[in-house]
Amino acid sequence: MSDAHHISGNVHVRRFESGDELARAAAAAFVETVVAAQRDRGHAAVVLTGGGTGIAVLDAVLRAPGGIDWSAVDVYFGDERYLPPGDPERNEVQARAALLDHVPLDPARVHAMPTLDEAGAGSPESAARTYAQVLAANSPDGSTPEFDVHLLGMGGEGHVNSLFPHTDAVREQDRFVVGVDDSPKPPAARVTLTLPAVRRARQVWLLVTGAAKAEAVAAAVGGADAVDVPAAGARGLDRTVWFLDTEAAAALPAG
Ligand SMILES: O=C(O)[C@H](O)[C@@H](O)[C@H](O)[C@H](O)COP(=O)(O)O
């Protein structure tokens, strides 16, 4: 069981006894959100994340997929390690292994970020421009799709997607996708949706486990500057939900 706690505005915190419990609850909420979007609009658009917690949620969705019509789901990625096709460190590869390869998605609706061009013609920046075009082509107005939910993991210093503290990427105000050449966490080359893109999602869910995240969770929930703690800037249009295990929630005020 979790207690759902309303923080302020549209920000909510849900606490769970374990990472497994968190993954099952987030998976159930994911299924409910996708089904509701399909009922209301005929299709759903989701943004997936890498990281152990985010992939565990996809695994839990596979085990309890409810009534999702997989043929009417568009899948996007919040960030990607700019690596060769099939590299096991790519978020896309991990998401395929956990869920995407096992459900009847329309392959044309799985919008992976570009891979490293081993001939050397590309770059994270060119990959970002390509992905921005993918988003625009699937949007009502040349911006981004109307994302129903954007899943996010969070690093111990508060990074989300490949938006690390005190970087140009986290400061980006205009573009929806940028390339990163110097990620402080390897690999250095990445492609990432920016905070303006994240904020276009109806719902943003932060999936966070472990004591190493507790201080950053408290800072972000407490309203830190997003340049210092990028997760603080990740807000959904309708709703922002923190899914936390007991350890990750440990530095929050009781409630
Ligand atoms: O791109 C990366 O290097 C990781 O994927 C990273 O961004 C991850 O999502 C967070 O660090 C949370 O990871 P955990 O959920 O495994 O703690």
Summary, kept brief:
Belongs to the glucosamine/galactosamine-6-phosphate isomerase family. 6-phosphogluconolactonase subfamily. By secondary structure, the protein is α/β, with parallel strands linked by helices.
Description of the structure:
It is a single chain. This protein is of the alpha/beta class. The protein has a single domain (9-229, 241-247), classed as Rossmann fold (3-Layer(aba) Sandwich). It contains seven helices and ten strands. The chain has helices at residues 19-41, 52-63, 91-98, 124-137, 168-171, 195-198, 214-221, and strands at 3-8, 11-16, 44-48, 73-77, 79-81, 149-152, 177-180, 190-193, 203-208, 239-245. The strands form two sheets. Strands 1-2-10-9-6-3-4 form a seven-stranded mixed sheet. A three-stranded antiparallel sheet has the order 5-8-7. Helix 1 (19-41) crosses helix 2 (52-63). The chain is globular and about 55 Å long. 6-phosphogluconic acid binds next to helix 2. 6-phosphogluconic acid binds at residues 49-54, 153-155, 185.
Secondary structure elements and pairings:
Layout: E1 3-8, E2 11-16, H1 19-41, E3 44-48, H2 52-63, E4 73-77, E5 79-81, H3 91-98, H4 124-137, E6 149-152, H5 168-171, E7 177-180, E8 190-193, H6 195-198, E9 203-208, H7 214-221, E10 239-245
Parallel strand pairs: 2-10, 3-4, 3-6, 6-9, 9-10
Antiparallel strand pairs: 1-2, 5-8, 7-8
Helix pairs in contact: 1-2
Residues 49-54, 153-155, 185 line the site of 6-phosphogluconic acid (6PG).
